[in-house]
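Q: Given only this backbone (339 positions), what sequence would you predict?
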């Protein structure tokens, strides 16, 4: 088993991945600067896993601080790199902060991995690199398009940096391109914390369901889709987390190329209106909504071809839409102690 550095390990996908790494018998070293996560997540993870976890509050943009972590943990043999600023609309307001944080943290990580001979890196990328694909479902050979936001640009740039750095022979990288991760661990001990009004659809739906929001705005009803609302590929966060363990194992086995990009989605598309209906089916709760203006930067239709994830990682999503939405609702209720 391996000792794995999980950057951003107290965040949404990072924390769920930590549970799967521990379940698979790996040791984890968590670093997080707590800019978009809560220290209470550490206790939740220790409660859930039954293990005392190694955590260092670390600013990855400070190379010396990051190097200190590698010096403390010479046993590290792999990294899963989640740490990043990730809000699309915020990135439009603060582009240089996004470029600085997301790129410098990644450059520092590559430098530390090269010097400390930590060869294997799994990188948290995004379907946002495809922009509006020419056809759907989209596979990994689809052209990378100009991003719709500085956040998306940082994901494209980080993939490019990794691809060029792999040529030195110091590192091997697998970029996992998430589609729309939703839901929460079945225990409802961990999930996605929101800071202020939710940006993403499903947290907005659950906050409307619990009464924190009055009405869901559906951003656009005039797209060229089944019902006029946008199509996305929603995937349970636990399916995403399990894929990270498989990706790390595949990378460390040496059986993959030195650089791979892999889609992680359900392989199916749902419209926004279909998600509202699916939430009613899963929970019995009707979400009040109105059709609003389109949201700048939204693509019309995107969902994944997951053939490569299945063949390379032996991975397929196990949880259906009802389980995704049910777990999201359970998490919302646990946050408001309405269980
Ligand atoms: C989904 C759909 C909205 C809120 C984001 C990131 C992307 C990736 C996946 C990480 C869209 C509509 C939303 C609302 C709505 N993340 N919507 N009303 O934008 O597809 O992708 O998550 O890698 O990088 O940007 O997710 O949940 O914001 O939106 O109608 O109140 O729901 O227009 O069609 P998105 P989202």
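A: Predicted residues:
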């Amino acid at each position: 088993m391996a000792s794995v550095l999980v950057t951003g390990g107290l965040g949404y996908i990072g924390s769920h991945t930590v549970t799967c790494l521990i379940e698979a018998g790996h040791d984890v070293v968590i670093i997080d600067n707590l800019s978009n996560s809560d220290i209470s997540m550490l206790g939740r993870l220790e409660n859930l896993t039954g293990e005392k976890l190694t955590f260092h509050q670390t600013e990855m943009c400070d190379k010396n601080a990051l190097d200190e972590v590698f010096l403390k943990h010479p046993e590290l043999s792999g990294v899963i790199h989640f740490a990043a600023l990730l809000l699309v609309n915020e990135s439009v307001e603060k582009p240089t902060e996004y470029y600085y944080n997301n790129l410098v943290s990644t450059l520092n990580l590559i430098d530390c991995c090269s010097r400390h001979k930590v060869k294997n890196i799994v990188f948290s990328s995004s379907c946002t690199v495809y922009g509006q694909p020419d056809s759907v479902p989209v596979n990994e050979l689809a052209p990378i398009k100009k991003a719709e936001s500085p956040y998306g640009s940082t994901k494209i740039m980080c993939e490019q940096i990794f691809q060029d750095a792999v040529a030195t022979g110091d590192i091997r990288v697998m970029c996992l391109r998430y589609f729309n991760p939703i839901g929460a661990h079945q225990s409802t001990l961990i999930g996605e914390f929101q800071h202020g009004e939710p940006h993403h659809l499903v947290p907005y739906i659950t906050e409307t369901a619990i009464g924190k929001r009055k009405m869901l705005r559906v951003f656009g009803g005039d797209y060229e889709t089944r019902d006029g609302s946008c199509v996305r590929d929603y995937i349970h966060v636990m399916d995403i987390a399990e894929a990270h363990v498989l990706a790390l194992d595949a990378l460390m086995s040496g059986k993959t190329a030195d650089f791979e990009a892999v889609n992680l989605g359900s392989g199916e598309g749902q419209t926004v209106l279909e998600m509202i209906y699916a939430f009613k089916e899963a929970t019995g709760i009707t979400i009040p909504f109105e059709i609003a203006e389109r949201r700048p930067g939204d693509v019309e239709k995107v969902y994944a071809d997951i053939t490569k994830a299945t063949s390379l990682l032996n991975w397929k999503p196990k949880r259906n839409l009802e389980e995704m939405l049910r777990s999201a609702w359970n998490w919302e209720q646990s946050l408001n102690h309405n269980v």
